[in-house]
Amino acid sequence: MNLLRLDHVVKEYKDKRAVDAVSFGVRTGKIFGLLGPNGAGKTSIIRMITNITRPDAGHIYYEDEPMERHHIENIGYLPEERGLYKKMKVGEQLIYLARIKGMDKQSARTALQAQAEKYEISGWWDKKIEELSKGMQQKIQFIATVVHKPKLLILDEPFTGLDPINTNLIKDDIRQMAADGCTIIFSTHRMEQVEEICEDIVLISDGKNILEGSVDQIKQDLKEYRYTFSYMGEFRPVNAGDILEVKAAEGHGTLRTTSAVGPEYALRKLLDAGNIISGFAEVLPGLNEIFIRTVEKNPALV
Amino acid sequence: MNGKVGLIIAREYWTRVRKKTFLISTILTPLAVLAIMVVSGMLNSGALSKSKTYLVVDETGILESRIRQSESSAFVFVDGDIAKARELYAGGGYETILRVPAMDISKPITDLEVTILGNERPGFGAMETLQGRLESAMKKYNYEIAGVDQDALDQLESDVDLHIELMQEGAEDKALSNSSVAIGSVIGGAMGFIMYIVLIVYGTFVMRSVMEEKINRIVEVVISSVKPFQLMLGKIVGVGLVGLTQIAVWLVLIGIGMTVMSIYFAPEQLPTGDITAAMAEAQDSGFSMSGFISELAEVNWLLIGFCFVVFFFGGYFIYSSLFAAVGSAIGDDMAEGQSLTFPIMLPIIISIMILFPALEDPNGGIAVFGSIFPLTSPIIMPARAAFDPPMWQLLVSIALLIASCAGVVWLSGKIYRAGILLYGKKLSLKNLWQIIRD
How far is B311 from chain A (nearest CA, A)? Predict the structure, then answer.
């Protein structure tokens, strides 16, 4: 089931169509990657989902109801351009941000204190934001985003400025929240992070949806039928109609077939030629590669 | 939803009120006002100016019995010639020597030339005093010579009091006198000035607060929870409450300070001679203390208070929402901010410029226009209130104020909503128009 669905959503600015009839669905409880190059329209899409701006055309549905203002209490949003009130104390600020999300003072305090323990920031409760390092501020901001236990969490580049330890802490938290049923939209340029945590993605380029689906499916769809293998002894050349290219040297090799045949065909041909094969694997394209390939292929950009 | 505006108001209010700068300005301002009052009071009462003693060589012999002596200006008549006076002067303790040459004293003296001898030039105030004392002494002598009876002359003097009676319906019983006009001007000027300070200072606070959220980039988090309009409104109300708190604290502190001062500087501790003299001079100009107090009680405080409250809120909402819109549009470029705030400052400055002509002629064209036009009425109408403006003007002015308040807040809300999300781009007049049309 989709928690969120966009149906031909359009956003226009003075001289530019920033979002051009974009449609996609976000499955409940999944981590969803919203990807695209700079200026593709990701932030415009997020702002419409968070009700900051309204679409000029098209519809957004939350749990199959047209998105309305009251739905935003179920959303936690960590914008890319983020900040906190520098002069306010950590505790006061967190309680304020939780309360404008609809929590009452007491439950906000209880929930925040639990989070503060977890992120080891209890000692900062009475410190002003400006006294903290950038990384510490990031942690506070993340806590502020998730404290009201949103059903939909939107994270725009959440790991910038965080050290590896805190990145992992938050990554684990994101996975745990998804396991607990929270739906997460994760927007980033960092493909290795997408590969690591996202199940579904949509790729936006120049305001258009140019690719969408589950990460595994996309990789299967866009694979180029490449394989790597290891062999022992002398390599014996392979010649077969569906094998397009074979390279081998010093015990390792690569092979490409047509899309008509599968891995078992490639492996059998290697063995049939008399090779001693000690390893064989299919090469699926990385998201990074898919990203670059798809965006460059998209004529709208040129 | 309303609860959220309450949260925004509370945050805006408490973070400001707890700031050190707020505490300092709230406490120091009334202290400064009191200090100015004490100093100017002391200057007026002469407590700060040391008493001056003059040596007089009077070769006519008519001054000694006729010149007024006082603690601040005393005259010592030298028994001898100018050489003797120089000797005394060299001994120290005297301001200057006044030399009045011998002349025919059998007829009234219309021309008197007095030479002032001294090591330093006497100040302007001292010269004024000397001239005044000498002139009244000569007048006394001339009356005697001409056989004019001073007392008889005094009895013939007539006190003219101007009483104003309005011929409007129901206003006949409201008599206005000179002193109530004076009181009206003082109260009106003070009201206008307070409004001016409030609009500029707190309008700027609202603008800064908007800019701070935009520069900090927290605004996007906040407006994903509340509507931009709610955020703007909460901010304006919160800052406004800070302003009211500050004014209330000022009034209380100044009130306490003045009570303390009036006990400490009780009249009997002032040099009595000067007080009676000052009273005598004041009486001459047609001013009476008891009259002043009764006039003060007759001022329409209810109307003034009502006007102040209505125009305070109306003016504050109009201008602070405009400042909020500008704050949202400029971001971190202060220079650009200056050029955008100028059009907002302009009507405030014009209001102050027409405030004094309006007080001088409270029913003239400028005053009537200024008190009805909604961008100037917040300053001019409270100032006019002490002069009992016609009811229809008041009603039209309030109606226009409320209507334009609603319009300006709505318009500013639109600009604000677009402006706070605009980074790195200048908000030109062209896209401003686009935003308003959307």
Answer: 32
